[in-house]
Design a protein that fits this description.
mainly alpha; globular; 173 residues; three-stranded antiparallel β-sheet; 5 helices
Length: 173
Amino acid sequence: MDPKTLQTWLPLVVIAVVFAFRFRNLSKPKPFQPGQLWIAPVLLFAVFVLLVISLPPSAMGWLVIAVGVAIGAAIGWKRGHLMHLERDPHSGAVMIRQSPAALLLVLGIILARRGVSAGLGVTPGADAAGHMSNAAMLLTDGLLGFALGMVIAMRFTLWQRAKALPAHQPEGI
């Protein structure tokens, strides 16, 4: 098998396997700690700052980042509303179940990203001189902004929803 074919199909196979495992566990609620929702946004923001410092975006790059953040925030808000939050009737703990629609939304984003990359002719890696193309840099900037906006909005939405859940009433009262 040639490397280009492997480069195309291997990520798709890995994504299919991961999503098969995720779909299998959709019906099981998992414990949810709203107090830990800040961790992923802070880590992602730190990565964002490091990337911006190490490779500053152009003016167009900043615009693409802003658009990516806005689109990501809208999708993150929607994804946060698609997840099921509930209280365990026995312990009162907040539980979360991923909805199939939220998982399909993520799958659609991944497929759209691959389609946009292919449409722009962006391939992983650099040119012969070791520089990334302008289209690749703009795509990277946009996806970085998208990820940042989506994670922050989704986590904030989940935190608001968990905070709004009715308090636990012990049985027998």
